[in-house]
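Researcher: Here's the sequence for the chain we discussed earlier.
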Amino acid sequence: MTSMVLSNSGLLSKFRGSMIGGLIGDCLGAPFEGDSPISKRILGNYISNLLSGGSIQILPYTDDTCMTLSTASSLIEHKKVDAKDLAKKYVSEFFSQPKRGYGYHVITVFNSLKESNFEDVFLPAKMQFNGSGSYGNGAAMRSAPVALFGHNKTDESFKIDIEECSHVTHTHPNGVNGAILQSYAVKTALKCDVSKEFDPLDFISQLQKKMETIETKESKSPYCESLKKIKDIYLLNQEDISAEEIAEYLGNHVSAHKSVPTAIYSFLRGMKPLSEFESSNPFIRTIYFAISVGGDTDTIASMAGSIAGAYYGIESIPDELQNRCELIEEVRKLADKLYITFGDVTS
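Model: Thanks. This is the structure I predict for it:
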């Protein structure tokens, strides 16, 4: 995989692709959340119907998109990760639309933040689960804007930004490190030259190298272990492993360490044709496979869509899918603002 200096138009396409890709994964994945196994026939017909224009239904977004857009708005407004502003925006968005699928534990954090008048924006998250913090995927699912914001930053500065954003709701190492891995996946995909031959082993090795420096401080290394599992799939030529087997092998849970690696694998899997779903579009194949794994389908597909969109760019995402998503214009505008504010291709 080759790093590149992108043209202005190429980078803008990738910013748009990542943000809109995340929205599409969220909207398309939401109706299947909690299902396992997923009916391939129903999923295939569902996506095919959307692509053919056979449905005029506008698909609603979930808390994944709510928090992603709040993150993007805060970054654009402050030009840095401002934890207090993030907390205020997350809480305000939740109380304005509480029925977007927020989990019980993050609602508890939001209530505590509001009651304390945001005196210590990290304390409510620290207090969860007897002080161990949450290891859910809520920090990872909203991290794409931070990855775009930090695409030219050093590893240390990038990591600090992700940690600060995560700590508003998640303090367990698995929750925070999941957000770091997801962000690195988006950032690495953003830097790839799509016109060059893609090497999945090199992509995984780059992420592995990043996570090895982070998980050496922990007693366990779930992300390095999962990345090794993904690498083994390619080394052993097992790319035809089923979605059900991936759910068992990597996970499909709300826990970050059982969903972020699955999203990354879904991006890689979408690069080649799928036996059970015919499509020449690798972005569509990514979303299809991410949903087919089952479980936390909206979040896994949203994270996979953010990575795939950052790699392929907006041109890979059919208008038929974009126009079926609630809030598409708002997401497009925020993607453009992120690019205008942070898309410096000369750095």
